[in-house]
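Fold it.
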Amino acid sequence: GRVLLDGVERAEIDRRAWSRAVAYLPQTPALVEGLRVSEQIMLGRAPFQRWLGEETPQDVKVVERMAERFG
């Protein structure tokens, strides 16, 4: 079989571009039990993080900004 995204073979798509295109963070349930709000927001950073989800100082800044913005 073949895996295509907008008609382009998976092997031809950059890893980050692929991650951004297929990332999914459901809006319901609103929060996963046991996760802090900052951890929940950090899940949305996955396509922008390094291999194995290593958080960078930039990720932390973005999460803080989003938490402040959306309360």
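Strands lie at 4-5, 8-9.
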